[in-house]
Amino acid sequence: MLWDRARYSQRLTVADYSTVRKSAHAFTLAELLISIAVLTLLTLLIARLVNSAAIITTLSGKHMDADAQARPLLDRMAIDFAQMVKRNDVQCYLKSPVIPMTGTTASTNNDRIAFYSTVPGDYPSTGSQSPFSLVAYRVNSSTAAANAASNTRMQRMSRGLLMNGDSSSITDGPLVFGPTTIESIWPSIGSNATFDAKYELVGPQVFRFEYCYLLTTGNVSATPWDTALGHIDAAGMRDVAAVVVTIATIDPRSRVLLDNARVATIAGALPDYASGAGPGQLLAQWQDKLDTDSQITAMPRPAISGIRFYERYFYLAPTRQ
Question: What is the dihedral of CA 197, 201, 207, 209, to 10 degrees?
Answer without folding.
Answer: -80
